[in-house]
Predict the structure.
Amino acid sequence: MNLAIRDIHHKQSRFLLTALGIGLLLMIVMGMAGIYQGLSEDALSFLECAKADLWIVQKDTRGPFAENSKIPWSLEDRAYALTGVAYARAFVSHTIQREYRGKQMRIVVQGLAWPRDDGSALPLISGRALGQAHYEMIADKSLDMVLGERIPLGKNVYTVVGITTGMVGQSGDGIAFFTISDSLSIQFDVPAESVRLEREARRSRLERQDTGKTQPSLLAKAYGPVSQIPALGTQYVSAIMINVAQGEDPKRVAAVIAGWSDVSVYSNEGERELLLMGIERNRKQIGMFSVLLSIISSIIMALILYTLTLDKIHDIAMLKLMGAQNSMIIGLILQQALILGALGYGLAYLFGLWIFPHFPRRVVITNANLIHLAFIVLFISFASSLLGIWKAMRIQPNEILS
Amino acid sequence: MKIKINPDAPAVEVRSLTKVYGSGNTEVVAMKDVTFSVRRGRVAALLGPSGAGKSTLLGAIGLINPPTSGSIAIGGCQVMKDSSPLVDVRAFRRKYLGFAFQKANLIPFLTAVENVQVAMEINNIPPRKARKRAFELLDYLGVGNRADNLPSMLSGGQQQRVAVARALANNPSLILADEPTAALDSYRGRQVMELFRKVAHEQNAGVIVVTHDHRALDVFDEIFEMEDGALRFSNHPTS
């Protein structure tokens, strides 16, 4: 006869209410781990999707994610020309904040190396990849944009042609993908008056130089956009992503690039570590909070089990009087602790499934996290039953006479 | 120590049993030099005013509260010498003793039949066999029809019958009952006392009942009276 089950059955509603409370506590512990996992996955989402072998960034920086990096776009061609490089793509990323549907919205603007990269490798859930060099964008679903919607950014209007899922930046803002030239236009968009003043200043500078005096056509171009005067303006990107050819050792290619004095190079794993380093403090913060919550859960569970044991002092004394062995009484308390823990864990999982999707940032519960928490709950259940067991062992059979 | 119960020996035999609480100025002698025995198949009453030492004597015989000096033999087996148990008291209680109290002390989350069954399962009797015997005992005591009820659904008399069934579960040599009728009206109280007599005679167990109830003394085979911790008077009405 299982006394623990009989007792629980007898006090169903009280036990369920207790399990509900434990479940809510464990849900918060589960959520804490999920928040960290979400931060980590958000930070790594583009890195995982881009599947680059190497990242070329500005010399001595930890860019492009951990800090700013600025390198000439032309490096893309230089890298492409290297032996063993299958694919080189420029990478541009910056965050903008614009008013959208009457609310302020933050968007991570990311450039794709059109036409080599049209975004078809992205996790599209609807629509298509970029189909032209300008004025199209792919938006993450977290931005709440709809296919075909026209979004004015800077002086241009971009049409949403595709929707991705899970593509968010380190801070949890949704990513919108453009061609690199469009993303640069958005990044360096300046007011018309500012453009006019810059062009006038440029003309004035050129007029004072021999080049301007001897080349009137150049002087005329100085009035035009920067992009039309390549001799004077260099466009910069954040990084160059490289994929090495099949069978090629990325370390060898990295060693060659490391020899270039104007850039630094990181492996994909190196970039991953740099990214995670950026959220290390968050991880520790959340970890500390989770430990505190686990301790609080243990204490609360211990008090509950202690109270449940106090309720049974008379019954335990009677069992001892009848000659019950200690193992039977320990089993009664321990089984109740384990059932309470297991029920709380199950409820925590169900609550989590229901509540976490409504959180503003992703809460990712992985199987590893679930297994980890299961062991924590097992430990908590054992630990919290000790107080009750200690009390039960001190109960004397003669208490039945009192 | 190997326990050997002799079916021909008295159910219980105590010699010079003394219990002293505290020491020096706070010393209280709860029981002094008590000597008596009860044979198997007989039911004995233990009378006396409150504080006379009846429950102390019962606690000592029940191996719950060891005496300060003296000896106790149950079924011919020496179980206590002075304050030292000579057997594994918990195992001994499990196999050879049955208890009933003023309150039935049934486990509230077990049904009537489970309350009886658990006493046997504690004694390592297989659950199916224990359940069968539990039903038989409840039938024997007239509460078979309430077997699946929780204690909260039983009357005081029915609860006490279930408690007696539990006390009988392991065929004990000795049943100890501490004021088992105190919470019952005189009619039901007498019924319970008669039940003990029936059990003692039919199950061949020794029964000691601590009671204040003088109305049912005719039920008992032997009567002992305690006062100020000493056994003052004993009467053998039917011997």
Q: What stands out?
A: Chain A is about 50% helix and 20% strand. Residues 57 and 285 of chain A are 30 Å apart (CA to CA). Chain A touches chain B through 23 residues (CB under 8 Å).
